[in-house]
Amino acid sequence: MNDLVKALTDLLGAEYVLLGDETAPYVADWRERYHGKALAVVRPGSTEEVAQVVKLCAQHATPIVPQGGNTGLCGAATPDMSGNAVVLSTARLNRIRHIDSANDTMDVEAGCILQNLQQAARDAGRLFPLSLAAEGSCTIGGNLATNAGGTQVLRYGNTRDLVLGLEVVTPQGEIWRGLRGLRKDNTGYDLRNLFIGSEGTLGIITAATLKLYPLPVAQCTALLALGSLDDAIAVLSAARQGFGASLTGYELMAGDCLRLVNQCYPQQRLPFEGESAASPWFALLELSDSESETHARERFEAVVGELLEAGRVLDAVIAENITQSKALWHLRESIPLAEKDTGKSIKHDVSLPVSNIADFIERANAALQAAVPGIRHIIFGHLGDGNLHYNVARGPDMSEDALLARQEDVYRIVHDCVHSLKGSISAEHGVGQLKRDILPQYKDPVEMALMHRIKQALDPQGLMNPGKVLVTS
Q1: Is 323 strand, coil or helix?
Q2: For 44, which of 89, 135, 217, 395 is 20 to 30 Å away at the CA?
Q3: What is the reported pTM?
Q4: What 3-state DSSP class applies to 285?
Q5: pLDDT digits (tens, 9 = 90+) for 132-151
Q6: Could you check whether 218-336 and 343-453 share the same CATH topology?
């Protein structure tokens, strides 16, 4: 046992310092794209213990890889193969410290499972609106580290927009106690937003003050069959006009995506028949109303009815109850699982101005088919905020190895299209290892230089999650 491991064991106890084979669940990412090794995995139980772990690692010049639920998609929480890093799991930092219903805030620790926070808010008669497919296993610390988005960004914003204060352990082992329930605090630099989205490269988020909202009185959900992307964008515009701030969700799905879900999970049936079931595009539309069930239903049916009459919507299924609503959402949320069950694909998490999305899909599809004939396009995402999960899968006459051999070409084509249309190569998944090397191709050089200066100023030893986000020597 080396000196650092002994010191960590003395600090936390042997039960919370994992070595050898015990580290296996912590050194590969969810997609099994990245594999690494760890000197040890530590599981501190308090912010003070996190600070002491960081101080010990700094004294021994040992890198630290923070890890929450390990559900990330860009390899940000996976150590490299050197075996020199300590993985710091926040799993034991899982307390809800305080709920302030009058101020509509809650103080929570970084290791809290997102679904548990949603339930705690509901139990207090409030809504915590962050919602994404991995909410049963992802942690709020990971959501903060990547500035996660999800299905309700259209109404409530990204994770960044749901946070008022943070508690952070710095690379030197200091504790910044910045938990504040203030919606106005104009007293200097916005350190909170510096750490959110930094993927553990500037410090370790240990707790946060989150915003809460009133629970909606009623929700209405519909699955819409659409004839084109232009119709999808026109429907979004009409929904914004008709519902205003009550529009909480607008998810776009290529027809092939839902048919893939039905193929993999026959019990999940597409609630359309005939030509409607063969539609090239579908949208999941959701309204949250604060007045009454009747008011919500009348508004919802009026807008959807007008869109049907205008021919912008080919067919619509409106959920009659919460069970049907959950079934419609389950179709959407099952797309990544069905995609994984059918083999590896090349995934993209991109954002564009909504006005450019149809142009992007047309250009990218054509360029990819010309370069790699026979591929399948798995396209879905949060059209309301311009975020697409534009994925590329192998065709029936192509092997998985043949597809992955063209991976760099596929990334280049897609990202070049995104960049030419004033978009971003990462919308909600972060950069991690996956996009680290190509990031400088698509970011302003001054912006990249400023990011490097911030990293150097806060983490001069370069020990905080090295090899993620930025290329460092």
Answers
A1: helix
A2: 135
A3: 0.93
A4: strand
A5: 988 999 999 999 999 999 89
A6: yes
